[in-house]
Amino acid sequence: MMLAEGNQSAEATFILLGFSEYPHLQGPLFLVFLTIYTVTVVGNLGMIMIIKINPKLHTPMYFFLSHLSFVDFCFSTVVTPKLLENLVVEDRTISFIGCFMQFFLACIFSVTETFMLAVMAYDRFVAVCNPLLYTVIMSPKFCVSLVAGPYTWGIVFSLILTYFLLELSFCVSNIINNFFCEYSAIVSASCSEPYISQMLCFVLAIFDEVSSLGIILTSYIFIFVTVIRMPFAGGRQKAFSTCASHLMVLTIFHGTVLFLYCLPNSKNPGLIVKVCSVFYSVVIPMLNPLIYSLRNKDVKETIRKLMNQPIKVC
User: Is 154 a domain residue?
Assistant: First the structure.
């Protein structure tokens, strides 16, 4: 019986419903998501390039920002192309391996982003509270270690969840009421009891949110206390300015995650989850580089120089 179930799961395919219940919106949605994805790719890869070519931006803060941009680009690329495809084709199936690979990669990048934002909060804490020791504490070797941590935990987290999802059995054809292979949608399609997998996901998700938010809140409490004690208004304004972009990104990211997983019972939970998932996986990766570039003088200056640079004709 176990072998039969395993064979059945291996041959399974998934059907991503996406926004198929709104056929009249398929064309407009395709154009909207294509525009968002284009801005996401250009914005995040552009941010990485700008940080690389401008020596003024070779600091720990921008080193972390370049990795945040890389994670945002990867996260959006894992999710959005399949979403765009399903808006223009009638066959919305995705293979068993394809579905689990999409979940595995999306999980890695979402968890990595959660802790990359925590690392950036710690960086701002050191910059504001210990400015004289900043370059000593945030050494290149330590910065690499801080970046390696989120990637490593993202991979471990994703491997654990994917392993327990693969332990579930699936029918030959499975309906996923979302536009990508998201955890709760995969579990809902399972033919077996998902209790252990669900409990594990809940525990790991709580650990991620509590630990990352703990680092962020602790860092910003110390920052706030330090800034309030500054004798000059100019110093306070400068300190708050360096944290403003990061705080904005944190509010949008964690606000969406908490709203998505703390929803009350709704008459149409499927649509709400889809909208939140779009914002979380498609829109936020576009917003991050825009927020940092629009609020950063050095980034805007580099963009202006690149745009005004004459094109050399050989």
Answer: yes
